[in-house]
Amino acid sequence: MFETFEHTADLGLRVRAADRTQLFAEAARALFSVMVANPESIARTVQRTYRIPGQDDEYLLLDWLNELLYTFETERLLLGEFAIAWDQEGLNSTCWGESFDRTRHELLHEVKAITYHRLLVRQRHDGWLAEWVVDI
Fold first, then answer.
1. What is the CA radius of gyration of the chain?
2. Of the N and C termini of the chain, which has fewer Cβ atoms inside 10 Å?
3. Backbone dihedral angles phi then psi of residue 29, each to the nearest 5 degrees
4. In the sheet where 77-87 sits, what is the strand order?
5. Model pTM score
6. Taking the CB of residue 58, how many other CB atoms lie within 10 A of it?
7. Which residues have CB under 8 Å from 101's CB, separation 6+?
8. d(CA 25, CA 93)
9. Cα–Cα distance measured from residue 101 to residue 67, given in angstroms and rounded to the nearest whole number
10. Contact 111, 69 (CB under 8 A)
11. What pLDDT shows up at residue 51?
């Protein structure tokens, strides 16, 4: 589950999930849901893999989301499905999506950057929580 919250000139995102793996996948879905109004229209025709080294969950989340945003900015690739795995080096992910198609995808917000502001990843008694702000 994810939700947005208001933040001056930016947009905050808050994600809750049962476990760490679901949290990171849901965070990616939240990012693309902010960027495209109809994320359910994203087909799974192109595959990308990402390797993000590190141990700190907050920096892993920030770096991973920035990689996804960079992929969209440079390749115009929308991603809609995310498989996450962990090892002693950090995060590994395989993602599926398709190239942006103006006839099928409606852009919602131009996300300029994932920021450090309000960056939070925590395990709680009822699951996991992440928050961050995007510059739009």
1. 14
2. N
3. -60, -40
4. 46-53, 90-99, 77-87
5. 0.91
6. 16
7. none
8. 9
9. 21
10. yes
11. 98
